Amino acid sequence: MTDRTEDLKPHALPPQDVLHAMDTNVSGLGTEEAKRRLEVHGANRLPAAPKRSPVVRFLSQFHNVLIYVLLASAAVTGFMQHWIDTGVILAVVFGNAVVGYLQEGRAEDAMNSIRVMLAPHAAVLRDGRRTSVDAADLVPGDIVLVEAGDRVPADLRLLEARSLKVEEAALTGESVPVDKTQDAVSADAVLGDRSSMLFSGTLVAAGTGKGVVVATGMATEIGKISGMLEAVESLSTPLVRQMDVFARWLTLFILIISGMLLAYGLVVGHLPFDELFMTIVGLAVAAIPEGLPAVMTITLAVGVQAMAGRNAIVRRLPAIETLGSVSVICTDKTGTLTRNEMVVASLVAARHVYAVDGEGYAPEGAVRWNDADVDPQDHAVLSEFARAAGLCNDAVLHSANGAWRVEGDPMEGALMALAGKITGGGSDPFTAGWRRIDAIPFDAAHRYMAVLHVDDENKRHVHVKGAPEAVLELCATQRMPDGSSAQLDAPYWENMVEVLAAEGQRVLAVAVGAPPSGGAHLVQADLPGTLTLIGLVGLIDPPRPEAIVAVADCYQAGIRVKMITGDHAATARAIAGMIGLKNTDRVLTGADLDRMDDATLSLAAAETDIFARTSPAHKLRLVTALQSQGLTVAMTGDGVNDAPALKRADAGIAMGVKGSEAAKEAAELVLADDNFASIAAAVREGRTVYDNIKKVISWTLPTNAGEAATIIIALFAGLALPVTAVQILWVNLVTAITLGLALAFEPSEEGTMRRPPRRRDEPLLTADLIWNVLLVSVLFAAAVFGIFLYALDKGYPIELARTMAMNTLVVMEIFNVFFIRNIYGTSLTWQAVRGTKVVWICVISVTAAQFAVTYLPFMQSLFGTQSVPLQDGLLIVGIGAVFFALVEIEKQMRLAFRNRG
Ligand code: ATP
């Protein structure tokens, strides 16, 4: 069919001819037929960008300054025929590369599986019913529905278009949205002029449309041009880059120091070159934190997976870091703080207030007045409510196994259910022959939806539903119980809106009329003052219980929560109260915001927690205002117009279920379940990842610095090295990729969500961290030297003294892991000692490796070690324990001092 479409020039044909050519009709394909076509045409997707080959990926592990220095050292030692050293250096480099390669693969897989979770969906008609399918399953001939915010899933020939505007930058480079209609254009029109077509990959900026798929996958226009998905995002964040730069400077620093020491040893110490050089190599190897970059990447990958497990899908890796420092979360109300499972609870007419029973979307339930069931026959206005609710509606209700589901907007689903309750289940007999001929889709800017129908007598009817203020403006009259119209009693309606909203109900107004111009089109400007108000509809949308808990968590974590909603001020305030937001006395509306200049807004935004009747443009102003107060802002959004605010926010968060593609693409994070609780969970994970990166660094740096210090001291003191270069390499090999890695998998610390947020500009190497690095380095060097001198003093051979020094180093590293696991609290709890499975696996492996290198004859000859007697072994463990006690006491004192201050 692809070739046929090529010749077909669907943009130039009338819709009917295209349907015929594609062998389909307006009610869509059958499921079986779609399946058959999918086999013929293949999935509707572009091939992924080619992955880097495993060889290239493996080799790229060596592309790192730290590794270059190590490789150069290996070359020199080889040249000097110190084969063991060469072998061990190469083993370190190789071991690191293998671990880096495997973990990077895992990280890439994690990112890829997230891509799958974000796969776009499309609304299609199959078997005459609207359903949602994976965009990859679309086939030529499918009838697809699009609305503002959608990414067009395939090339479509439009059958219907209402106020449709599409941004085609992806295809034509033209960034101004272009108008689309169903009218055929000339056969030789260029892509940018084919206004009867929607092209795959372009973005619907406004309006709604319906079209037939004429090309999928590689046959689409975008497929012909690029033929590829965007490349996989690189696994890098500002923090990783900051560390990369740090590593480079560190390497340079180490090289300079090494050169100076070499000169000093030769000129001042008159040491033999051979021995001196090996010492300097040992120093370089000791000081270089070669495992750090890999472990940091792994920490991030573990974070991405942990967040995905909590329904927060990271689209851009740096978001992980930003999330940890978020100090204010601006959230939508509907669906995020509430369940977005709506039920109509009340109807307000000119003289009556009705209560509506029923649960979920089932079109069953009584309508009551004064606590007694009413017969809709006796209350004509109820049929009018039903008609407006049913006609001014794009949702479809499905029932499967007795459970009712909504396809489309939940609020419209609730209105469909209401219509069913009034008309007695089935479709309204009164509107049976009616056809919709035009519509003004809902838009957050005008806040209502209008439809134009023609009935079986060829009479035209307008129905409108929307926010009461917006609809009241369109009405001059109101419907009375006897079916007549009277002049609109605006104060009565405004008062009733407040009454319903104060109970937390979402209020809609519905109205009816004849088209002012009598024509076949609805024109927005013609509507004001022409309609008759039927009444108000109050809907309940209960708060999510988990959001209440999450809001409390955020407050504890020093994060402010602000609700920014399009809903009415009183409804917003009532829901805010139920959710547990502080500061519910003050509500600012979009109109209030419009009256403020930027400086006033900046103060008001910080002080207010509820913003009602806002439009997406207000969100953008609010983000900017809050940022100007030095806050790190997370902002949620779902509509196409929310994209600028999401981009501007420090962490833009889109809704995975009800969010538009445009919002998802602008966001850093997508919530798989639209739930506020997932934002709080993501912040917690963000903080954990940042902590873990810090832990990895504060574990690695003192180890390297301590080792380096030992060598420098020995050199200056003219002493034999307490630990030889190969032994240092061994220690780095076995510990960096076990103990260091264990920290990447650390769970959140107990008080993670009881701390205030980190400042956005807080440096990674804080004063505390630098102090800890210094302290631990000194303790390491002192202990290693101490035990070495003690052993020599006891008359032990130097090999044994070195073996003991090396083991002391490793034992202290193990204790240091337990210390660092709790940088914000005490390490002296049973839980801290019990550790995690990962930590113990690492500790046990390292211990086993140390036993091997100490006691196995073959290893002894390789590394120049000797068996350590039992009591000395115990002494070494004792030194580790003393070290742990010292650093822990120092930390406790520091924390206590700070808390008091
Ligand atoms: P939030 O911003 O928290 O998600 P919201 O869903 O109420 O809140 P909007 O979608 O901007 O925000 O809706 C604003 C108002 O417009 C609603 O309170 C309602 O009165 C009206 N409205 C919403 N959806 C529709 C619709 N499909 N048809 C008609 N009116 C609507």
How would you describe what is shown here?
Pfam families: Cation_ATPase (PF13246), Cation_ATPase_C (PF00689), Cation_ATPase_N (PF00690), E1-E2_ATPase (PF00122). The chain has 901 residues and is of the alpha+beta class. The protein has 4 domains: 5-44 and 138-228, Calcium-transporting ATPase, cytoplasmic transduction domain A (Distorted Sandwich); 65-98 and 239-305 and 688-752 and 764-900, Calcium-transporting ATPase, transmembrane domain (Up-down Bundle); 312-337 and 544-674, Rossmann fold, CATH 3.40.50.1000; 343-540, Calcium-transporting ATPase, cytoplasmic domain N, CATH 3.40.1110. Strands 10, 11, 12, 13, 16, 17, 18, 19, 20, 21 and 22 form an 11-stranded mixed β-sheet that branches. α22 (643-648) links the parallel β26 and β27. α10 runs antiparallel to α24 (676-717). The termini are far apart. It binds adenosine-5'-triphosphate (ATP). Adenosine-5'-triphosphate is lined by residues 332-334, 409, 411-412, 442, 444, 447-449, 465-467, 506, 508, 565-567.
Q: Could you give a short description of this structure?
A:
It is a multi-pass membrane protein. Keywords: ATP-binding, Cell membrane, Membrane, Metal-binding, Nucleotide-binding, Translocase, Transmembrane, Transmembrane helix. The chain has 901 residues and is of the alpha+beta class.
